User: Fold this.
Amino acid sequence: MADDKIESVKSLFTAKSAKVETNKGEKYYENLYAQCRERLDNLKKIVPVSNNIKIKEAIEEEGVSRRDFLKWASATTAMLMLPASFTPLVAEAATLMNRVPVVWIELQDCAGNSEALLRSDGPTVDEIILDIISLEFHETLMAAAGHQAEKQLEDAVETFKGKYLLFVEGSVPMGLNGQYGTLGAKGETFIDHLHRVAKDAAAIVAVGSCATFGGIPAAAPNPTDAKGVMDVVNGKTIVNIPACPANPSNMVGVILHYVLTGQLPELDSLLRPKFAFGYRIHDNCERRAHFDAGEYVEEWGDEGAKNNFCLYKMGCKGPMTFNNCSIVRYNEGVNWPVGVGRGCIGCSEPDFWDKYAYERPMANANIKAPTGGVEKTVDQFGLGLLTAAGIGIGIHAAASAVAGKKDKGEA
Amino acid sequence: MIIKKLIEKVEGEANLNFEFKDGKISSVDIIFNIYRGIEEILKGKAPRDALVITPRVCGICNHAHLIATVRALEDGLKNSGLEFTLTQKAKDIREFTLICELIQNHIKWLYLTIYPYLEKLLKIERSDSYALKASYVANTVTKAMAIFAGQWPHSSYAVVGGVTCDPTYLDTIQALSYIEDAIRFYEKVVVGINLDDYLSIESISNLDKLGGDFAKILYLLGKNDFNKIGKSFDRFIAFSDSKISKKAKSIITTVSAVEFKFVKEYEQNGSYAKGVKYKNRYFEVGPLARAMINKEPIIKSLHKKYKDATITRVYARIHEVALLLKQAKEILQNLDVTQESCILDSKIDINNISGIGAVEAARGSLIHKIEVENSFIKSYDIITPTQWNLSNNAVAAKAMFGLDSEEIASFVFRTFDVCSVCTTH
Assistant:
């Protein structure tokens, strides 16, 4: 192996993988704690947006113990990268979620994120979703339909002017003057619809890869000129929760953070919350030890697959994908793609549909080499640099295979 | 007189334009106003990329799209001369996960669509939190599915030649416990009697054994003439052999074989959805079609008395959940985890192939056709179940003809379990 390549592997694997500040010092957290306390006390005074069910009663009715609830709260506290001392506050915030109105609109989508949200996890999470978070308007969930639903949306926007969190699912088709996606009896384009509802939102949360980066509809040749929300709406605070589908824990996490602190979580340069997207899948992957040991699945269903070896050579994009799937997992933590030996497809990265798709290890992919440098921080670790990691890892993977063969030969 | 009505909560929305003549609906235009161009996107991509892209057509039946793609690719390889047979394990796991997707869909349709809309239509005070019931079953069943598929929605664990997962016996036990939870729910809440007793009901004269929400719904449907209205062509079709159906058609209760070559899609004015016909005729797809083709005794009994009226259609979908739960359990109990997961090399080139994959999805037959030339996709055609049922003047439209209220018609429309995002893709 050429010296420079060896150097590049070395620097890759000795560099700290991501620099998310998880400890901001005692002073900072003391202030934050006081600020959250005040925020929650103020929220308590507000009349709930929809008071169908109170979370405490709901928990008892559903047979979820206080213990389970606190377990969830402590896991969520950790997910939000807050010290354990915040757990009681997070639990309290969960009970106050119905003070923050949430409006949810679907644009050019497959409804997959709504579906994912429906099976969010946690204690009585059904309640969190359906009642505690006040989904003032969600086309898939609400009882009203048709013209009535349109009216309900208008009412929600008017009543909660400047206060609601707007969740957007789906991309915005800009082509043909927006005629690829229209809605309502008047045939309003998705573009106009988004602008209208976004205008008075406290902040916008784009969920899923379509709403964040354009997603599958934006795949080449992007027939409808689909764009993510941040490329369409200006002058608004936007949070991106990419992935296809976005992990419901991260959706709930963003809302919870907002309820708790009155602010949106810290974001990276792609507007993703650092608590969820600060690390790569690879950093916390359950199969990471096999990567480090150079043990790979070489073929679907081989011995390596049976032993849960690393899937990098089968095209896993975990090393280039920022997301917390390896920690939070899916479907109430039951499993995730790597768990079934499939490898990550990089579905939360911009352009994954064209660049990362299926079974091609990054090292073999015909993607332009980056303009130098190793990863530094999450912010600087853009798509171009991701490829650097890919190539570096490719070298490592190849080297390991050679090493492995050599060992066998000697034995 | 033309009345325009907007139908929401159909995984997207649809516009229905009703034309009334002498107070009765004489024509219905069904219009879908969203387009993504997924077939265009697939063109020029590497064939295996389709496995990642097509599930994104629909967040509700994404798994059916995955299986349709993998079947189309495998069919193409076979057509090009490659001989192989998947292991029973791989087939069973794919079948199991598909079954799970159907179950969660049907239960959500029951509690998020049909039950609430029926009560709304009949101006009955809403008694229960339906959404909680829906999400309980959906959560439970998708967890069982995630054990094999990794996640739901949008999993990609099925690959050409098999599946990537390699479950242990313990995994199957865990999945079984979820399925048993779902069975308990079905017994206690949906039908009010145990599953075997329910499945032994073969004639409408024994329907008095039923309890639970299903009995309430049937009572409301029967009392409000839904055993008379909603009749359509009484022609049914399915394109995939599965545990609950076979590739065949049923016309006036006569079941006969079908071939893909007679399936023709066509453009429709003013809508992004294409229409589809078989031998130039409209056919209904979905649980009722499957039950008619499979000659399910209770459905035949209902059909004998009420034909393909709304009550028969609703019954077939809720009934199918029972069949699926039983199948899911049986598959898990008999799964041989020692077999190979995947029998084809992942590096096999897919150069020049042409294949078709069909799946019985929740809403009916889903067909994918792929053509690969020089290692890239030349054309990809997706025909979704909703296209069959909702072509203009097709099955759903005919079921609404002659009704005197657009409210009732909209309800009849919803009994087809409409999916807008799938339809236009």
The two ends of chain B are 32 Å apart (CA to CA).
